[in-house]
Amino acid sequence: MSENKKQKFVYDFTEGNRDLKDLLGGKGANLAEMTNLGLPVPPGFTITTEACKVYLDSGTEPAELREEVSEHLDALERKMGKKLGQADDPLLVSVRSGAKFSMPGMMDTVLNIGLSDASVKGLAKQSGDERFAWDSYRRLIQMFGKTVLGVDGELFEDALEAAKKAKKVTVDTDLDAPELQKLVKQFKKIVKTDAGRDFPQDPREQMDLAITAVFDSWNGDRAKLYRRQERIPGDLGTAVNVCSMVFGNLGPDSGTGVAFTRDPASGHQGVYGDYLQNAQGEDVVAGIRNTVPLADLENIDKKSYDQLMQIMETLETHYKDLCDIEFTIERGQLWMLQTRVGKRTAAAAFRIATQLVDQGLIDEAEALQRVNGAQLAQLMFPRFDEDAKIEKLARGIAASPGAAVGKAVFDSYTAIKWSRSGEKVILIRRETNPDDLDGMIAAEGILTSRGGKTSHAAVVARGMGKTCVCGAEELEVDTKRRRMTAPGGVVIEEGDVVSIDGSSGKVYLGEVPVVPSPVVEYFEGRMHAGAEEAGELVAAVHRIMSFADGKRRLRVRANADNAEDALRARRFGAQGIGLCRTEHMFLGERREMVEKLILADTDDEREEALKELLPLQKKDFVELFEAMDGLPVTVRLLDPPLHEFLPDITELSVRVALAESRKDANENDLRLLQAVHKLHEQNPMLGLRGVRLGLVIPGLFTMQVRAIAEAAAERKAAKGDPRAEIMIPLVGTVQELEIVKDEADQVIAEIEAATGIDLKLTIGTMIELPRAALTAGQIAEAAQFFSFGTNDLTQTVWGFSRDDVEASFFTAYLEKGIFGVSPFETIDRDGVGTLVKYAVEQGRKTRPDLKLGVCGEHGGDPESVHFFHEVGLDYVSCSPFRIPVARLEAGRAAAASLGSDSR
After folding, report:
1. Any domain includes 533
2. Which residues participate directly in catalysis (predicted)?
3. Which of 207, 354, 406, 584 minimizes the number of CB atoms within 10 Å of its CB?
4. Do 751 and 715 touch, CB atoms closer than 8 A?
5. How many domains does the chain have?
């Protein structure tokens, strides 16, 4: 930017467009886009995210901001023909947050700015409705007091409830003008007492303070918590939208609502949303009054309904996606207050993506960007067995699907406390508000007795993928007494188990048994996409997976140690086994044979122990190669410390001590104890394990290689197609690999000569130590493939012992923002990722045809899969259940890198 060009901090709605979300935030960019489309948007302007960033960095607003706001306010006043807060006919505005990414209810909004003791009378006269004017003023003081001045919101709520109770009414619309006027006086006293200052009467002071409060709300506790949950960067800042007010609380011919162009829960096309007569927008989202379905608007106001339907079609076609719309009707005049690409359930995401392809609005590559692996994983969770004998308590609105079971809790604090103690909980509220976010995160599911599909609970739960049932009106929730009463007088106390079905809206007493998801049944081949009973969802998943498989470059293998897991993985779409952990084959009854090997004092004893293990190992590999016939199987030689196969040192010491006291000590126990002491290490994960075992215990690795080679030869003789790959673990230097590889090559050559079969076995290594990554070019001289063991690589790069640190301080690191997500869950691109990238580059410099994969748990993590695609790996390997997720994300990564013409 030229030094002479002044930075622009304020944009009129007529100046922006939807591509300026970084600068104008999602709300501001979309208000500008709707204005450009000629839709009825109240005039206003947007203060940019850059202004917010300057404020957050320096503690003061940019010097030019006040002047720019004044210029745009003057222009708005000329356009509207009235001044902000003037006494006779006041211009009123809303001040609303609007970050780049949707953060529903997490930041601040103030409506009706410009009202004062003087202008409220002018508003009453101009509108001809005294009640409306005092209701609007009451709302301003309440919102401004809580949001801007930090007054305890419960004080206002208690005063409002007391006023309704005094009149013996249940809804605020039943309070008349004199009663609201008294409430305004009460609210001003609350502000004076709690905030230590009078409610400001200067309208410009109200607006400026509200703008600053919105900036501050970017770093509010609930906003930071939501960003961590949704992985939204903390340095984006929020825009501020100043919009001329339109009023839905002007009587029965006015109202406010939220609409979706498709059902956000199912994805079905139709008329979906909520409408509330004689109300302002916050009433709908807060769920404090129960709404009517949007379809009812056709009978209430046919003209506005028809116009809204036309606008919704325009917006969906323009954005090529499900749109979430906020609107207000002011005495029969429809106004659009917001649109955004709507949050949706996992099922809806898959259905909508395929529907939009069929409508020609997007292509397959773009359809893949409309879904993600986390959503697919949700669809694979079990669901309730509706044939079970269970007691149904009530039925609400199916707001966010899933089957959630837990103990009833009635506040966020208890939800967090019990969850941290290992309890599964269901958070039950009359309605949720942004302050409940941490409790919602801790809970298995959310249940409310008020609100609809557009309430705070529903919108936030869908965004998080949490099970949610809203608006279960039959339930009487008493948060103070910590209980809920269902029809028939059934009382659910805190701690009682309840089950909620977010797909049907049903609420049950007790724990409901679950059955497999139809999506899992489809992947396992028990339900076919074309079958009638599979339904639309399975058909949509099938199509999206076909898109992904057609686009992806990364192959997907499974981590599997036996034939049963291998066969299941193959049904899930695995293209081989990327990690067979042979140590799992030494457990159970074979542990005694390993003990015998460890206790061997002579070469003969050791040879005898290895001979016993050889046929068992061979049988395992024969079964595995048969299950994965024609596909690669990477077998990792023994990796963990040998002490893992021995008894616990404390238990064994006690046993020996007791036996010695009785003078009947067992000779084998004494030898075992000596071996345990000998092998005991302070930090066994950095001790005698992996390739080190093969180098210090003669014959161990050659026995395993022989078992692999003989099994492969047997399968080939039986006309099978085994494709075994032998992987040496924990290599830190090429010399270690060369020694083991030479021994393995000799064994393989011996078996090939004896059988006359060319086995075509390849030998490679795991890259799981920083030194291995840094010397990958040297190691590639001996290795035909690399598989990145990112679990151990993460431990050794960070200096973390995973088993210890996750329980001890990871929670604090996540809460303090040191981690956005655990580095064991999603790969640390800057640290571990840099080593992976370097090893890939150096390995392929030495050996251009080097096969590269990853077999740590990161192989099934959606975000990590994208990284592995970017750095050029050939495959990822993960647990069988994660294979569909990895397939989908590999397709999404390829589609994203190619780009899409449909955006």
Report:
1. no
2. 456 (tele-phosphohistidine intermediate), 855 (proton donor)
3. 584
4. no
5. 4
What are 432-459's pLDDT values in tens digits?
877 788 898 899 999 998 877 767 787 7
Q: Please write the tens of the pLDDT for every residue from 720-758.
A: 999 999 999 999 999 999 999 999 999 999 999 999 999
Number of Cβ within 10 Å of residue 655's Cβ equals 17
189, 185, 160, 187: which is closest to 175 by C-alpha? 160
Residue 270 lies in a domain: yes
Domain stop point among 316, 344, 372 = 344
**How does DSSP classify residue 721?**
-
My answer on whether 734 and 830 are in the same domain is yes
Q: How far is CA 510 from CA 393, 404, 405, 513, in A?
A: 10, 11, 8, 10
Nearest to 238 by CA among 489, 9, 48, 92: 48
* 210: nearest Cα among 107, 138, 122, 136: 107
CATH number at 269 reads: 3.30.470.20
537 falls within a domain: no
What pairs with residue 351 in β-bridges? none
Residue 76: partners with Cβ closer than 8 Å, 6 or more residues away: 43, 44, 45, 91, 93, 242, 244
CATH at residue 717? 3.20.20.60
754 with 879, same domain: the answer is yes
What is the rounded CA–CA span in Å between residue 884 and residue 870?
Answer: 20
CB 463: neighbour CB atoms within 10 A?
A: 17
CA distance 353 to 340: 17
Binding site members for Mg(2+): 768, 792
Just list the catalytic residues: 456, 855
Q: Name the token pair of 107.
A: 């930041």
3-state secondary structure 844-862: HHHCCCCEEEECCHHHHCH
| pLDDT given at position 652 | 65
**In the beta sheet, which residues pair with residue 334?**
329
CA distances from 504 to 88, 401, 507 (A): 52, 8, 9
pLDDT of residue 825: 84
Cβ atoms of 68 and 10 closer than 8 Å: yes
* Full residue range of the structural domain in which residue 62 is found: 10-244
pTM over 0.85: no
- Rounded average pLDDT over 36-57: 96
Of 344, 366, 398, the residue at which a domain comes to its end is 344
How many other CB atoms are there within 10 angstroms of residue 180's CB atom? 23
Residues 507 and 395 sit within 8 Å (Cβ to Cβ): yes
